[in-house]
Amino acid sequence: APPGAAGAPGLRFSAVAPNTTDAVVVPPGYLHEVVLRWGDPLFDDSPEFDPYHQTAEAQERQFGYNCDYLGLFRRRGNGNFLLVANHEYTNEELMFPGYDPENPTREQVEIAWAAHSLSVVALTAEGRGRRSGGLDPVVGHPLNRRFTMRSEFELSGPVAGDALVRTPDDPDGRTVLGTLNNCAGGLTPWGTWLTGEENFNQYFANAGTVTDPKAAERLRRYGVNKGPSGRKWERFDDRFDISVQPNEPNRFGWVCEIDPFDPESTPRKRTALGRFKHEGATISLTPDGRAAAYMGDDERFDYVYKFVSRDRYREGDHEHNATLLDNGTLYVARFTGDSPGEITGDGKLPADGEFDGSGEWLPLVTSADGEAHSHVPGMSGVEALVFARQAGDAVGATKMDRPEDVEPHPDTGRVYMALTNNTNRGLPGYAGPDEANPRRANKHGHVIELRESDDDAASTTFSWRILLVCGDPKDPSTYFAGYDKDQVSPISCPDNVTFDKYGNLWISTDGNQLGSNDGLFGVALEGPYRGQVKQFLTVPVGAETCGPWVTDDRVLVHVQHPGEADGSTFENPLSHWPDGGVPRPSCVVVWRADGRKIGTA
Ligand code: FEO
Ligand code: CA
Ligand code: CA
Ligand code: CA
């Protein structure tokens, strides 16, 4: 039986049992509804959604596809919120009737360009009953905004203007059209939004035409297609064709910073934070007021990074705070275990009873006033930013099991890292298990808790321990911070993380390998319930749970790619959520039917 209502404050709900229902399933006593769906109108002139007659022009004025990160700003005025949303990618086979992946049409490709990138949407709770947590989009609100592959993004920091980012379309190397594969993100203390460009490599074609061995190796390290790309965009815009515009991929793979409160502002790609498959970026302030950004590179055997700003955050000084992420030092993490003897890889706890140890933040590049000073032998500062993965290789960073969200706890400053999985760990030809990645063929992932020395986010050393080794609790290789395994929900493939006001960690999953749908889980970090994982909701068939945003009276998630599965098509999708027709990625809000606080008795 799933865990009952007993639990830490904020987690006192009866856990949802694993299931394969084509619906959002929430605990007894909770209600939910869809806030926004793919194609919903955002502006007064937005056409109604019609998947049989979709156009790029319509899509530019509607909520995009595959919503991933979700951030919610509370605004002045009762019940007003500003939602920021990533649209990570498109599922053409579920978007277009009769889609032929070998021969996409120009219209389909242009719709995909418009369905990617970002949305900003005002939401309101007005007009709802006192007990309702329901939220409605405010169509035509002056802050509503869509970013697409036609929107201008400015390169900022030391890489801006460098030869590595100049292209025939942008000979100055300063203005990029669009942002791609925006996965997770974070809100900053100065009121902006950070979003990570993740698997940008998949959009570019013909890396195989590059003959210079150094350039070819760089493209290989980032996984850029040797031949045609999956979506064939290169047929419709040669900036996606490396044989024509070889530097265009160098203009993606960054963290973007957006000011959602200024609808005229141009978003910036912050090059001082390095280029890799950025999951997201989340900020902690150091005791002396500098900004530390924690970041993961979501690839098997890739790294965890941190950027620490040179300057201090100044409350209310918008202009100054907008320069924080251009000046500072980028580090990569090395984890060292403290247990004697070998890590077996079968989940057996080491001799000292815990997977734990110490670590170092190894400096890669210090950026200052447009200059990049390298700490990596054989690489210039700009090279170490653009090819941060290779900089990490050179200094001996620890190869991790796909670092997804990396977020500092808002009260304790401890950093929680979701390592989603790595089925190649320990296989012939790959790195073996180590104390920070202790499971061979790690199918279900794990979560690490990191504590900076002196609890200072600027420290260059830290200690760490594993909080969770995920999976079915009956599997002896799982670990729930020592909590009773009969009293926890099964969890697999942790991806996004957030915190509630009680200090609990919430984890959403992507790609559950236990045969049931993905979901959202809460886990206590302190007190007698530490390690008690409880499932709060599940998402429909084929969907991934994204975004999570937890306040004391609402939980919001993004339901990404419902119906995504082998053989699932527009005509015969494996999910019909949320309307019974074609599946639509959507934002969902959950609240308590009695109007009381989430997870309280
Ligand atoms: Fe887009 Fe790493 O998940
Ligand atoms: Ca140990
Ligand atoms: Ca993710
Ligand atoms: Ca993921």
From TrEMBL:
- PROSITE patterns (alphabetical): TAT (PS51318)
Its source organism is Georgenia soli
Taxonomically, the superkingdom here is Bacteria
- Give the classification, highest ranks: Bacteria, Bacillati, Actinomycetota, Actinomycetes, Micrococcales
SUPFAM superfamilies on file: Calcium-dependent phosphotriesterase (SSF63829)
Q: Which InterPro entries match?
A: PhoX, TAT_signal
| Protein name, as recorded | Phosphatase
Q: Which one Pfam family would you cite for this protein?
A: PhoX
